[in-house]
Amino acid sequence: MIDSFKYPDTKAYEYVVAALAAKGVTYKEIAKITYELQQQFLPDIELKEYEEATIDVMHKRELLNNVMVSLYLDKMATEHKLDEPLQSIVAHDAGVFGVDETLALQIANIYGSIGVTNYGHVDRVKPGIIGKLDRDRDSVNTFIDDVVGGIAAAVAGKLAHKYS
Ligand code: MG
Question: What's the pTM value of the predicted model, to 2 decimals?
Answer without folding.
Answer: 0.95
